[in-house]
Amino acid sequence: MKTVIQIVLFIAIVGLAYLCYDSINSVIEFNRVQKLRTEANIEKLKDIRTAQVAFKSQYDTYTGSFDSLINFVKSDSLKLVKKEGSLSDSLIAEGWTEEKALKVGMIKRDTILVSVLDSLFGKNYQIDSLKFVPFVSNEEYEMGSGVVVTGSGVKVQVFEAKVHNNVYLDGLDKQEIINLNDKAGKLEKYPGLKVGSLEETNNNAGNWE
């Protein structure tokens, strides 16, 4: 009888030890994959921001459409001023201006057109995938644009792109995702990754910055 009890206790101890190990290992693995996915999505949101800023420089507004944004990057061009020569401090002190120096040919300024894609990301960048969330199937970022009126009455163009924890962490431990959402809720923060804002002017900052 004593031997049977000892065997049962041994099995129980081994079982508890395994459960503890598995629990700790699951958290470690979740944190590892979460970090990987978070970093990839942050880079994607930064790229969306870069494209939006370029779009606004061209059209004086942001866009809430990925089709418009992607087509802009693929097909449009940006003006780039090619500079040759510059005014020294001594010439500026003598009253020389850039306009005067241009007229006499002392310096040169030529405006050229460059591909948005090549200029911002490089020709091999997969711009068509800009709207898709990495590591999950056929999920897109939420994106919108609008106007925010500041306290002083100034109208400011804004945009926002975001992805919820439930989306970009899909397939991972559900309880860990719930814990992240609860933590964000208690801090009154968006439960996911977001760049820009449709509610305030934040200089297109990401909520990870």
Structure description:
This protein is of the alpha+beta class and 209 residues long. It has a domain at 75-120. The chain has helices spanning 2-59, 66-75, 89-93, 98-103, 116-120, 165-168, 174-186; strands at residues 77-84, 108-115, 142-149, 155-164, 192-196. The strands form 2 sheets. Strands 3-4-5 form a 3-stranded antiparallel β-sheet. Strands 1-2 form a two-stranded antiparallel sheet. A hairpin with a 5-residue loop joins strand 3 and strand 4 (155-164). The termini are far apart. Mean pLDDT is 86; it is low at 17-22.
Beta-strand residue fraction:
15-25%
Overall strand count: 5
Low-pLDDT parts are 17-22
Order of helices and strands: HHEHHEHEEHHE
Our Rg estimate from Cα atoms comes to 27 Å
- N- to C-terminal distance: 64 Å
- Global outline: elongated
Helix content: 40-55%
Strand order of the largest sheet: 3-4-5
What is the quaternary state of this protein? single chain
Biggest pleated-sheet summary = 3 strands, antiparallel
Give me the number of helical elements: 7
| Average predicted confidence as pLDDT | 86
Structural class from helices and strands? alpha+beta
